[in-house]
Structures are given as structure tokens and as C-alpha cells.
Amino acid sequence: MTLSVLAAEAVSGGSSVVHDANWFLENAWLIPLLPAVSFLLILFFGKRMPKQGAEIGIAAVGLSLILAVLTGFAWLDHRDNFEVPGTEEHALVVEADGSAGSDELTLTAAAEEESDEHAETDEHADEGHEASHPYVAVQNSTQWLQSGGIEFNAGILVDGLSVMMLFMVSLVSLLVHIYSTDYVGGDRRYTHFFAFLSLFTASMLFFVVSDNILQMIVGWELVGVCSFVLIGHWWEEKPNSDAALKAFLTNRVGDIGLLVGMITLFFAAGGGLTFDTITINSEIVAGNVSHTALVVAAASLMAAVMSKSGQFILHTWLPDAMAGPTPVSALIHAATMVVAGIFMVARLYPVFFEGMQIGGSSINLLATVGAITLVFGGLLAFVQDDIKKVLAYSTVSQLGYMAMALGVGAWTAAVFHLFTHAFFKANLFLGSGSVAHAVHSFDMKKDMGGMRKFMPKTYVTFIIGSLALAGIFPLAGFWSKDEILVGTGGWGLFGGTGGNGAYTFHLTMGMIGAGLTAAYMTRAIYLTFHGEYRGGHHDEAHGEDADHDDAHAHGDPHESGPRILVPLYILSGFAILAGLLNLPSGFQLVPDSWQERFGHFIEPAGASYFPVIGHGGPSWSLAIVSSAIAVGGGLFAFYYYFVRVDRMSKQLGESLTGLPDGLTSRNSLARVGHKVLVEKYYLDHLYTGVIAGFTKGPLARAAYWVNQNVIDRAVDTAGTTSVRAGRVIYDRIDQGAIDGLIDGTGKASDASGQGLRHINSGKVQNYAAILFAGAALLAGAFIIILAL
Amino acid sequence: MLLNQFLVLAAILFCIGVYGVLVRKNAMLVLMSVELILNAVNINLVAFGALNDDVGGSVFALFTIAVAAAEVGIGLAIVLLMYRNRRSIDLSEADMLKG
Question: Which of A264, A310, A450, B95 could form a cystine bridge with A297, CB 3.0-4.6 A?
Fold first, then answer.
């Protein structure tokens, strides 16, 4: 209606993209290029370098980080000070009208009363910003090739989202590079490892700056390949190569969805046949794309998100991917690659916003898949003995939060959680790697325990990461998780939130997830860092003393070196502070200019390529209740492990592994639940046993039967009939008519050949004479024909 | 423009070339006669190009020269091989090219 008209105007004006801007914004393509060059250099010269190629990778990624930071600053300046040349007046009117008009349109009946007042002030604040400086992305692309009138461009799209990703990916990658020089030091494929870290970094950076969907597919597949290679880094052991294959094949399932979705967009958007992300998004926002096409595209892309970003039911590859080296898990399977799906949704947000009708609804596929993932993933984390698997399921759960946030329309909250999660989860993974480096195992129950004494520094960073993950005030996770819960718009208590709709179910799931997160992290901390050290030998424990002596005999585990600790410190710093970047708007304790900084710089509010979304207002009561649930979950687990298990372990004089099971041995329901969790909801059985087994067994047999009895019979009948018909044809037509003809031709050729044999003398000059004679004849014929 | 003179010159050259190719027994002379034929064609191309005020004719002539160079290369190689095998480049002896 009015909105679409205004948006259409904005599209035709093209006011949300510019091609000339700050040097750093225009040349952001350098950032992925550096690690790509480094990949080739390491591959060809790495082995001959003094540090076996690691220094090339670190230098390249370091330079990328510096460029990314400078690009970030350039973006901050650009966002606040950029004037659209020549169209200020016009843009001002359109933008102001657009945001004012959106107010009425996006508010739903359910949320209207509570949020009216707040939304009003919100929009006014936004209007102030936008009127002076609209959100303008920077695009710099060049034509790659042209075929049949369709242009294939290669280029970069720099806006808040990609700048944020550039910074985050290059920072985590640099820290992981440094960490790896210690962690995989002395490995037989050390150089190879760094080469692929570089390639991964390049692909991920390439993916996040790409300005068209074709380029996104390329980046998406490249990170998938790097993930495959790095999971299978130690492929000599069968489980590792199996895990790599599983990751790759599970992702292929989603990749089909990605292709179908992108192809749909290519044909559907506007006049169609464009790969350009901005054009596609703008056309959708302007209402020029059929809803059916968007539903198909959104549903297909959902499959891609589910596989790449580990959403329930295609998440099964992610925990297995922990077979790769820990730095790889931290970089690829926690901080960067697995958020590619989330990033893709954020980048193509209009597709999902319109296709799934996020605004004004209370349930949709994306949000529901996210909500289920976050609870079910969290539950699975309770039954894992491998510390990395706990973190892997935690990642699944947190990715569920992000998907849910996007599903309920809380775009900024999702992207912000992506940002903070990268730091604290990378911190936790690297911390677990630090512990595992000391005890040479990932098994918390068998080989860890009491690590606090041996590794106090790792312990502190791990605690910080866990608190941030659990969402304890005022660490990073608190702010981002709270914003997601606010964004669901399902909270009505004491001046509730009001977002794009009343997603009460999702709010509930988010709350449960918060409690679960705190509880499973407490469990992991207890098993790893508290209690008695159980490592040192793999026999059953014989009580404290024997354990202790044994540990001494093998030498106590010791704190890791600086190349492992420094990245941990830096990531801990981010885990503490990153949340302050986006203090909620209307947060009374800080000045207005500190609020929503992240949202202001990242979210393309009012841009022609971004849908008009509602923003929930923060609520003190919601923050307090969700914090209370998180703390409660943590305390419950604390009581269970730190008090009850600890006491029982001391009373019985048994180490943890020797304790009789508590609840599960007494309550049959609990036992069933535990079994289901240990078996990972039987999803792996479903995939390998039922689906693959059915295909191999009954389905194959049924197909064989159909083949033998139906198809074969048909083929046989057809065959005998043909033979009979063939015989008739042979006798009558073939022998009589055709053979006579063929024989005649043969005889004629024979006779003429006999005649012509004589000119075939073998003398070259005779041949030349014939050639000239022929040419002369042809020329004569030509002249005669022309003359006629 | 004196197109006819050029055409006549080309025709004469062409006929001399054809005569050489058909009659001379020395392979080297046959190759040289082939060059004459090609150059006759070149003259025609350039002459017609000049008549029509079109640079295409000259361009084609240049192409022909390049192709002729390649052709001579191959021809000389054949002659050389022939000499190595038979100690003679007399074409009347080269009569094995028959079915």
C-alpha cells in the first residue's frame, strides 16, 4: 500500500547503495584476497620456510585484521557522515515517511497496546538519525562475464553486517592461528594445516563480503570443503575420516536446498534474472515478487541453514565434527563457518521476512526450528563425557537462539548474538583445547577433574567464557540473549516488549534454554576443573591416593604456554566487554548516546533493501526473570555436582566414575530419558539405520522384485514381440527391397572404381594436374552460374 | 585505376606457377612454383582491395604470406625427408602414393 509505493520509490532512486566511498570500504576485497594468496604461498613454499609456513598465514590474517579494523572505522564514519550526493532533500522525505508509515503497518493487534508508546519514541529517535544520514551500503563490483544478456558480476557489498563479520572472522582466525602454532606444533601435516586455515579464512571472508548470491554459493561451498579437510586432518584414524565425510554429506543435503532457493530467487526477483543481493532484496521489499516464489525460496534456504548452522534435525554432523583439531573446532565449528547459515538469512532477510510472514505472526518455520534446536541441543549437552561435545551441543543450542531470533524478527539481536557468541564460544573451545593439551584427552570423566589446581589461568578464562555463555550479567551473553528474548515480543508483563508479533512459545523455549545453558556449563566446569584429578592412567580408579600417586608418576599436567594463553585472555576480554556495544535502548542507567550503538551501525534500518521490522522494547522484568532462570539452572547443577556428588564421592572414597548412578538407576522415566539423550534422539539411527538401511535393505529388495517381475516381464514381452516383427521385416523388406538397393549401389561403386583406378597412378604431378583441372572446372561452372 | 594490368600480371604469374607445378621434376622448383601461384593470388587481393578502397584485401594478403611461410616449411621438410630416403628429389620417382 503506501509502504510499498514508498519503498518502490526508494528502489528506483537507488538511494541505499553507493559506489564511491571511503577507500577502505571500496577496497574491502583485499581482506579475503590476502589469506587466499597466503594459502597458495604456504602450499608451494611453506615447507621451506623457517616456521614451516605458519608465519605466512599469521602475517596474512594479521594484515586482514588490520584492514578489517580500518574498514570498520571507515564504516562508522560513513554511517554517520555520508551524504547521498544530490538527493538529500528527496531521500529525507522518503525515509522519514517510510519509517513513520511503517509504524502503523507492522504493529499487530496483540502487541499494539503495550508497545505503542515505546515504539513511538523509538521511531522518533530513529527518524532523527535517518533524516540526516540514511543507511547507505557500499557496493563495488565488476563484470566477470556476460552470457545471453545476463551479467555475472563479482563484487563486494560493504555494510554494517559485512563489516562486523569481517572484523569477527579475521580476529578469531588470527587468534586461532597463533594458538595453533603451539597446539598442533610438531604435527606431521603442520604446513598443510596452516594452508587450509588460510583457505578457510579467505573463503569465509569472501562469503561475507560477496554482493551477489552466486558468489555466496561459491563461498558457502568453499568453507564446506575446508571444513571437510580440517575435520579429517588426522584421517589415518577411521572415526575422523568418517566424521569428515558425515559433515560433508550432511551439508550436501542442505546445499541442494541452497541451490534451489538461490535459483528461485534468481528467476523470481523483480524482472528476474539477477544475482545481485541488493536488487533481489529491494525488489522483495518493494513487493514486486510473488509470495509463492518467496515461500519456496525461504523453505529451500531453510534446509541450507539447517545443515550448515546445525539446526535440529540436520545438526548431527556438528558434534561429530569435533574429531578435528581443537583450533579448527573453535574457528570453524563454533565461531565462523557454522554461523554462515545465520549470516545468509540475515543477508537475504527480506526473503525470510516476507516468505515466512514473520511480521505480525506468532509462529513460523524458522523461529520454531530455532526454538526446538536450542532446547534439544541444550539437553543433549548433559549426557556428553567429551568436553568438546558438550561445547558442540552448546553451539547447536546457541545457533538455535540465533535462528529463532531471526525467525521472530529480532534481526539485530540475532546478529549481535552471533557476534558475542563467536568470542565466548571460541574462548571455551580454545580453553578446552588447552586442558586437553595438558592431559592428552577430551574425556572429562576419565581423564580430567581438579584441573583448577594445575591450570589456574585456563580455569579463569573458562569460567569467564561459561558465565558469558550462560548469560550472567553483565557479560556479553547476557545482553545478546536478553535482546533475543525481548525480540520475541511474547512478554507482556509490566510494560512488555512488542516486537513483530507475539512469539510466546519461542520466548518460553528461550527461557528454558537459558536455564539449561547455565546448568550444563556448571556440570562441565565441575567435571573438568573440580573434584579429584582422575587422569594419568586409564584403569579404574582406586581411590584418591592411588590416583594421586599415579598422576605424579606420569607427571602432573601443567599450564599451557603463552601462545595458548594470550588468545584465551583476548577472547575473555571480548567475552566480558562485547555486550556493552549494544546496550538496549531505553536503558535508564546510561546516556542515550551509549544505547543501541551496534544496532545503529549494523542494522540497515530504513534502507531500501531491508524490510521494515518492529523492535521490541526492553523490559526490566524480562531481564530479571531470564537472569533468575539462568542463575537457577546454574545453582541447581551447582548443588547437584559441587555439593551432592562431591560429598558422595568423598563419603564413598570413590572417584566420580566409580559412583553409582543417581537418578537414572532409580527412576525408570529418567532412565528412558537419559537413554534417548545418550542415543542423540536416535537421529543417527534414523539416518544410517532406517533411511540408509531401508534404502539398502527392504527398498532395494522391493526394487529388485519390481525389476524382476514387472519391468523384466514388460521388457521380455516387448523383446519377443520385437523378435517376431523383426523376422517378418527381415524376410520381406530387408532381403527383398533394401538388400537389392544396397547390392546395386555396391556394384555401381565397384564398376566406377575399376574405371577410375587408372588415374590413380601414384605420381604426384598427375594428382596436381587433376586438382587443377577440377578447380578449373569448378571455376568455369561458377562463372557460368554467375552469368546466368 | 589500372586494374586490368594487375589482373593480367596475376594471371600470367598464376599460369607460370601452374605450369611449373605440373611439369618440373625438381621438387624445389615445384615448391617455388607454388609460391608463384600464391603471390599471384596476393596481387589479386591487393589489387581488388585498392579498387574498393578496402584495407581488407591487404590484410588477407598478409595472412596468405604467413600461411605460405608455414606451407613452405612443411614442403621443405617433406623434400628433405624425401632426399634422405632416396638421395633424390626427382618427383617422377615419387610414385608410391597410390592405393
Answer: A264
